User: Fold this.
Amino acid sequence: MRRFSFPFAVVAVLAATIALAAPDRKVAQFEPLAASGISGEARLNPMNDGNTRIQGQLVGLQAKADYVAVVSQDATCGGTASLVIAHFTANPSGRAVFNELVTQDISTIGSISVQLASDPTVLACAGVQ
Assistant:
């Protein structure tokens, strides 16, 4: 008769718990539009309360220019259902970061765009998949 290994059982239960508890995090890459040269990434982390933490890192911005980040429900950064989530200024090297908690479930975010604060033209788009 074989004995069931207690350490093996503990490891199996812990592995299953970790697998089930892994959040549905997403990473989206910003692609430049309108020959802007802007690129970077956004990390989306769902929160337990239904909100989403969005952390963005951008390069190729105009130095010291003011920008906004906008979330949309569609994946092409062109939808009418959009919300400005961050205002930020590029540093002298044309880089910027933002870290925002938005009151939207991660499943409703299709894309994130970057625009100059003074112009609604989309300069970079990150489709969220």
Observations:
- The beta strands are 26-32, 39-46, 52-59, 66-72, 82-89, 96-102, 111-116, 122-127.
- The radius of gyration is 19 Å.
